[in-house]
Design brief:
Shape: rod-shaped
Low-confidence stretches: none
Length: 89
């Protein structure tokens, strides 16, 4: 009977140890999932900022292009030169 009680006590100790290990693993997984969520939000923010920067660059290129075309039109369409206005597009 004592042997049976001792074996049962040992099995309970092992079970408690296993439950503790499972709990530690679950806590590590929860921390990793939380960290992954933070990183995902940071990536999304960086992608959004990159998109805004790209839009700004595109707008600046459009402004430069517009300014260049306007400048060429003023240069070639002035009353002092002999190029027809339709030659510049």
């Amino acid at each position: 009977m004592q042997s049976s009680t001792s074996e049962t006590a040992e099995a309970i100790r092992k079970f408690i140890t296993t439950i503790g290990s499972v709990s530690d693993i679950a806590a590590e997984i929860a921390a990793a999932v939380e960290n992954q969520g933070l990183m995902t939000r940071e990536i999304a923010t960086n992608v959004e900022q990159a998109a805004i920067g790209t839009a700004d660059v595109a707008a600046n290129i459009a402004d430069v292009t517009h300014g260049s075309v306007a400048s060429r039109r003023r240069k070639f369409c002035s009353p002092h030169n002999h190029f027809p206005a339709r030659a510049i597009n």
